[in-house]
Specification:
Blueprint (H helix, E strand, L loop, with lengths): L8 E4 L2 E11 L4 E7 L5 E9 L2 H16 L8 E9 L2 E9 L6 H4 L6 H20 L2 E2 L8 E3 L5 E3 L6 E2 L3 H5 L6 H10 L22 H16 L2 E4 L2 E4 L2 E4 L3 E4 H7 L16 H10 L10 H16 L8 H5 L22 H11 L3 E4 L2 E11 L4 E7 L5 E8 L3 H16 L8 E8 L5 E8 L6 H4 L6 H20 L2 E2 L8 E3 L5 E3 L6 E2 L9 H10 L12 H4 L7 H16 L2 E4 L2 E4 L2 E2 L8 E2 H7 L16 H10 L10 H12 L2 E8 L2 H16 L8 E8 L5 E8 L6 H4 L6 H20 L2 E2 L8 E3 L5 E3 L6 E2 L1 H9 L4 H10 L22 H13 L1
Antiparallel strand pairs: 1-2, 2-3, 3-4, 4-6, 5-6, 7-10, 8-9, 11-12, 13-14, 15-16, 16-17, 17-18, 18-20, 19-20, 21-24, 22-23, 25-26, 27-28, 29-31, 30-31, 32-35, 33-34
Helix pairs in contact: 1-15, 3-6, 3-9, 5-12, 6-8, 14-17, 14-20, 17-19, 19-20, 23-26, 24-25
């Protein structure tokens, strides 16, 4: 039993509280009544002395569970904090305060039938809410049901609560319950909870959420019967039976160890109608799948409440309420009935590859298997075609021969259903089929990515623009996963797919895990939590973070390291050959080792101070190289988050072009000012946009005019014309260039230097007309010409404004060589541009 001695004043999160009195203690902590400094608010504070990893884990799990569930009959968490003294670390959980005490204390005093029914309904609703959130309480007893000042129920003490993510969802896929049973044996097989309130199956070591239903039955029985035993001079209320030679013991213990057909009896002084007492018996059935669900219990109790409010009596059996609902498969099968074949992953995938059916159904679609796309640790992926529409999809087939494989399959399905992002593969359906050799396959239908995987794409060259797009999309997908408290754990080029337009789709979530409390609990305990949740060495060795190879556990920052390896692979195209296959990533050479090894493994086992190098060919973004090095840091705490990586990549993409004009005389100053002014006065989607202008004097006292414009990652048209382009692209370039020149002329500006080098392309390949150093206004030109048809006025004006031989001689109009020309000189240069395209 935990004993703690705390200071009078403590900080819990952002709140400073004063300890008022000790309320009680349990297996995992001591509870105090506390008051917030400067206010009249009163809270309950649970102090958990964490002397080992298990205690820390339970504290964090309890805080995590309370933080993500919200219900009027479940105790609300207010804040979480940490305190250290000479004995160790204390986790402090600040929750709402219930002045009514516990239901166990309250049952010592009489209460009305209406009050009893209210307690029963509210407790059932709290349990139903937990189960709808995939949480099993595992410690339902009268001491853990608290009462407010108005005697409303608040279910508390979640130290033993556990998640069972796919428990209920898996059950709808199989009528005999075998899938679900295998999964629950994996999730909940430890003995927990006080033996007086637990279900019979608890003593066999494998149970589901229906164990909560049995414990709820003992609570409802205690409310109506007020039966109790005395432990340490304290009355403990529950459902007990007398066993010869032993005395009174919990009904679940008696059922499992003496007689499974025991039917607990209500005495003559018990409260509640015969029908209500009969309904309690339904909860205390030996077989778990003979018990109703928590929601069905709520529905019936509400009916009874309504009937009492109308002055009627309820004679309905609880069975009459839930017999009309959809009957779910059994939630429990004894271990002796489970016959799982044990195979290696390699054997399983080999079997899966040869036994998956050629034609199968998913929802309303009939699909035909076209070809095998690849395989991994947990499945084989096929390209399939819809027979009705001819559309292509991908199917991941998972051969379910043991609990571990089933667990991963169900987890992957549930995870993909809960996430939606443009750069994450979308799940379109799930199902199960019997293979040609009689094996059961669970399958996931997803979108098909014709661009293949990234490992196949990296041998081919790509532009800087494309590289940066891929990097941003990967980082955005991973940042999204982490915002949903999901860690991928297997980031590598093989798991990054490409669409027909070469957009990223992150796939293969077979190793992904939730880390619910990671971002919600800070401090010392965070590392212990990650060590419990993610301590297995999983992933692909070339891409794993250093901490994954250690025994200290790891967090979402392991994904950031994997992301760093991906970014490095895109930039460097570094690879090793293993088994005849090229693996792109980040590798280091170690003396006396025949092959280079992955950076993460080298950092953990050889030298944590390795700094990955970059070749000169990739040296086009110094800030990008720095970002990659940060992501590949040995210490997870020194790595950025995935969101920070994404934001940095966005910032890198938002580059500008800076034109530095050295002004050695007044004429050059005038030209620079004129260019800046011209750009400020015009605005068109196909003309380079000015962002700012300023002047600068260097150490030799020379004046520089600085003109900041948008950056065009696609380079200039002169460079682009060296590569082939489609007729559609050619027409786009010509029309956009013509639109830009027409806009200039409408605004009385002549460019005077149109050529492919001054036509820039942004990252989408759209035209941006640039370099306005020779551009001139000809405001009065057209007006004079319009007033006089003989040209004499225009001739004089042109000789004044545009009589210099300017521009590149290869691109000038004929009249430019005679010394008098108009805006039509631009049109001639535009024609040469079209001819070049």
């Amino acid at each position: 039993m935990a004993q703690t001695n705390l200071p009078t004043w403590l900080q819990v999160g952002e709140k400073i509280v004063n300890i008022q009195q000790r309320l009680g203690n349990g297996a995992f902590g001591v509870v105090y009544k506390v008051k917030e400094e400067g206010t009249s608010k009163v809270y309950a504070m649970k102090d958990i002395l964490c002397l080992n990893d298990s205690a820390i884990l339970n504290a964090i799990r309890e805080a995590s569970t309370l933080n993500r569930i919200s219900h009027e009959n479940v105790i609300a968490i207010v804040s979480v904090g940490e305190f250290r003294d000479s004995r160790g670390s204390h986790m402090l959980l600040l929750t709402e305060y219930c002045p009514g005490g516990s239901l166990n204390d309250r049952l010592a005093r009489p209460s009305s039938d209406q009050q009893n029914l209210t307690w029963m309904t509210q407790t059932a609703e709290a349990v139903a809410h937990l189960h709808s959130c995939n949480v099993v309480h595992r410690d339902l007893k009268a001491d853990n049901v608290l009462l407010t000042a108005s005697e409303d129920v608040k279910l508390g003490d979640f130290g033993l609560a556990r998640e069972y993510i796919a428990l209920k969802r898996a059950s709808v896929q199989q009528d005999d319950g075998s899938w679900l049973t295998t999964y629950t044996q994996y999730y909940m097989q430890s003995g927990t909870g006080p033996i007086h309130w637990v279900a019979p199956e608890f003593f066999r070591g494998h149970y589901t959420e229906k164990a909560d239903i049995f414990s709820l039955g003992t609570l409802l029985f205690a409310i109506l019967e007020r039966d109790y035993i005395v432990i340490n001079r304290k009355a403990i209320y529950g459902a007990f039976v007398s066993v010869p030679g032993i005395g009174k013991c919990g009904v679940g213990f008696a059922m499992e160890n003496f007689d499974r057909n025991i039917r607990i009896q209500f005495s003559s002084h018990a409260q509640g109608s015969n029908a209500l007492q009969g309904n309690v018996h339904e909860l205390l059935k030996y077989n778990p799948y003979d018990r109703p669900t928590a929601q069905e219990i709520c529905n019936h109790l509400r009916v009874i409440q309504e009937n009492i409010g109308l002055g009627q009596s309820s004679t309905d059996s609880l069975l009459s309420v839930y017999i009309t609902t959809e009957i779910t498969p059994p939630l429990y099968v004894p271990i002796s009935q489970i016959n799982c074949q044990v195979r290696t992953m390699a054997m399983m995938q080999q079997t899966a590859a040869t036994s998956f059916p050629t034609t199968f159904q998913c929802g309303n679609m009939w699909l035909r298997t076209q070809e095998r796309l690849g395989s991994g640790a947990f499945g084989v992926v096929y390209k399939v075609q819809d027979l009705a529409t001819s559309n292509f999809y991908a199917v991941k087939s998972i051969l379910c021969l043991n609990a571990s494989v089933l667990q991963n399959a169900v987890r992957e399905v549930e995870m993909l259903k809960q996430i939606s992002h443009p750069n994450i593969i979308a799940i379109l359906g799930t199902g199960q089929v019997n293979g040609t050799q009689g094996y059961l396959h669970m399958f996931l239908l997803t979108e098909y990515c014709p661009g293949g995987n990234f490992n196949q794409r990296l041998p081919s060259p790509s532009t800087n623009q494309m590289n940066l797009k891929w990097m941003k999309q990967m980082a955005h997908a991973i940042a999204y996963l982490h915002s949903r408290n999901v860690v991928h754990r297997d980031l590598k080029p093989d798991n990054v797919l490409l669409t027909a337009t070469e957009d990223v789709k992150l796939g293969d979530f077979g190793l992904a895990r939730e880390y619910i409390a990671l971002t919600q609990i800070q401090g010392y305990a965070q590392n212990i939590f990650t060590a419990y949740y993610m301590q297995s060495e999983l992933g692909t060795k070339y891409y794993m973070a250093p901490e994954v190879f250690s025994t200290h556990g790891y967090s979402a920052k392991a994904d950031v390291f994997g992301l760093g390896v991906l970014l490095y692979a895109i930039l460097e195209r570094d690879h090793v050959i293993t088994g005849g296959k090229a693996y792109y990533g980040a590798f280091v050479a170690i003396p006396n080792l025949p092959e280079r090894i992955g950076l993460g493994f080298a950092l953990e086992t050889i030298n944590r101070f390795f700094i990955i190098g970059f070749s000169s060919s990739s040296d086009y973004f110094g800030s990008l190289q720095m970002l990659i090095r940060q992501a590949l840091n040995y210490d997870p705490h020194n790595r950025p988050t995935a969101q920070q990586v994404y934001q940095s990549l966005v910032a890198i993409e938002q580059l500008y072009a800076l034109k530095d004009v050295l002004c050695l005389n007044a004429s050059q100053v005038l030209d620079a000012i004129r260019e800046a002014v011209t750009l400020c006065q015009i605005s068109h989607e196909n003309i380079i946009a000015i962002k700012g202008a300023d002047r600068f004097v260097d150490n030799q006292n020379n004046l520089h005019m600085l003109i900041l414009t948008e950056y065009c990652a696609g380079g200039n048209l002169n460079e682009r014309l060296a590569r082939p382009s489609s007729e559609r692209i050619n027409w786009k370039w010509m029309s956009q260039a013509a639109d830009a020149v027409a806009y200039l002329h409408r605004n009385d500006v002549v460019h005077r230097d149109l050529k492919p080098e001054n036509v820039l392309l942004n990252r989408r390949g759209n035209v941006k007309l640039a370099d306005f150093g020779l551009a001139r206004e000809y405001i009065a030109l057209r007006r004079v010409d319009a007033r006089r048809n003989d040209g004499s006025w225009m001739q004089m004006f042109v000789q004044y404004y545009m009589d210099s031989d300017v521009g590149s001689p290869y691109w000038l109009a004929p009249e430019c060589f005679t010394g008098h020309y108009t805006e039509k000189a631009d049109v001639f240069s535009l024609g040469l541009l079209f001819f070049a395209i």
